[in-house]
TrEMBL record:
<dbReference type="Pfam" id="PF23276">
    <property type="entry name" value="TPR_24"/>
</dbReference>
<keyword id="KW-0677">Repeat</keyword>
<protein>
    <recommendedName>
        <fullName>Pentatricopeptide repeat-containing protein-mitochondrial domain-containing protein</fullName>
    </recommendedName>
</protein>
<dbReference type="InterPro" id="IPR057027">
    <property type="entry name" value="TPR_mt"/>
</dbReference>
<feature type="domain" description="Pentatricopeptide repeat-containing protein-mitochondrial">
    <location>
        <begin position="45"/>
        <end position="165"/>
    </location>
</feature>
<dbReference type="InterPro" id="IPR011990">
    <property type="entry name" value="TPR-like_helical_dom_sf"/>
</dbReference>
Length: 328
């Protein structure tokens, strides 16, 4: 009996992964192993297919396969993506019932789920205190979860104090996600000066020096930091500073960044700059739409080229090949 983990890729769509289990595996006489289930669960989690994830979890249990911490966190991710917080909390609590050690990811998810279910920052904070009492360190994922959780409950100062404490510890450097969470807390409390300081500190990190807090080549999440800081500055009416936050270091422009820049230049009565940005954004939008149209036309041409002509269809039917006579 073969195993199926070799034919399931984590980047495939969840429907394809589910089809492997329901159709291809029985036909190929392949037995699912723990890796097969985990990879399929990952595809479900990315698509927020929590029902399919729970169905796979039940199949694992019936097959007698022991779930790993990775299995639990992946199922919880699918549930949390669909905002099924009570189900998320139940799955994460099962980790302790199975006597498995929590990971930093499962700790962070448990903090968030507890906050969403109880609507209490203290209850979520107690979850962290429980882990801390058992010797857990303040990992980057946990820092981000705690800062976001505290800020969402209006505890902005607690969130920023926690971020400062975590940043002062060198054994587990805070991640870009933690910086973004701290900037969001600054926006809620109106502390634009602190948001600028956080952006400056982010540039001192290894990833900040490599990419720049504004993004550089691999802007990704780090590129969001300058955008987030600019949003805080706009909310505080600091238009010139917002423009500077976006321009230094250079940030690849997207829709929100264009909107922020246009708002800033308009407020500062920099009309020519505002019109230039508006024209540039319109040009990029039109170019993007034109590229999409070209791709659609090329795809249609490929489909048309593969379709037999009317004469070919007639010839095939004369040879008794059953092909419907559909006009080209």
């Amino acid at each position: 009996m073969h195993h199926a983990s070799c034919i399931i890729h984590p980047h495939q769509a969840w429907r394809r992964a589910l089809d492997v289990f329901e159709s291809q595996m029985p036909r190929m006489k392949m037995e699912p192993d723990i890796l097969s289930y985990d990879l399929s669960l990952r595809a479900n989690a990315r698509a927020a297919q929590w029902e399919a994830s729970l169905a796979l979890a039940d199949r694992m249990e019936r097959a007698g396969l022991r779930r790993s911490i990775w299995t639990y966190t992946t199922i919880a991710q699918a549930l949390s993506s669909a905002e099924k917080w009570e189900g998320t909390l139940k799955v994460l609590n099962s980790i302790a019932e199975d006597k498995l050690p929590h990971s930093a990811v499962s700790q962070a998810m448990l903090i968030t789920a507890t906050s969403e279910v109880t609507k209490s920052w203290k209850a979520a904070w107690d979850v962290w205190q429980h882990f801390k009492d058992k010797g857990s360190k303040l990992q980057p994922q946990v820092v981000t979860a705690l800062v976001n959780m505290l800020a969402s409950h209006g505890e902005d100062m607690r969130a920023l104090q926690l971020f400062a404490t975590a940043r002062s510890r060198t054994e587990h450097p805070v991640s870009i996600d933690s910086y973004l969470a701290a900037v969001a807390a600054c926006e809620k409390s109106g502390r634009w000066e602190l948001a600028l300081k956080i952006q400056y500190l982010a540039n001192l990190n290894p990833w900040g020096k490599r990419e720049g807090a504004g993004g550089g080549k691999g802007h990704g999440r780090s590129g969001l930091l300058a955008e987030a800081v600019a949003g805080v500055l706009c909310s505080a009416g600091q238009w010139e500073r917002a423009m500077k936050a976006l321009s230094t270091p250079k940030v690849p422009m997207n829709a929100r960044r264009y909107n922020i820049s246009i708002a800033c230049t308009s407020r500062c009565e920099m009309w020519e700059e505002a019109l230039t940005l508006l024209w540039e954004w319109g040009r990029k939008t039109r170019a993007k739409a034109a590229r999409a149209n070209r791709q659609n036309l090329e795809e249609e041409r490929r489909r048309t080229a593969q379709r037999p002509s009317a004469e070919e269809l007639m010839a095939m039917n004369r040879l008794h090949v059953r092909v419907p006579l559909v006009p080209n």
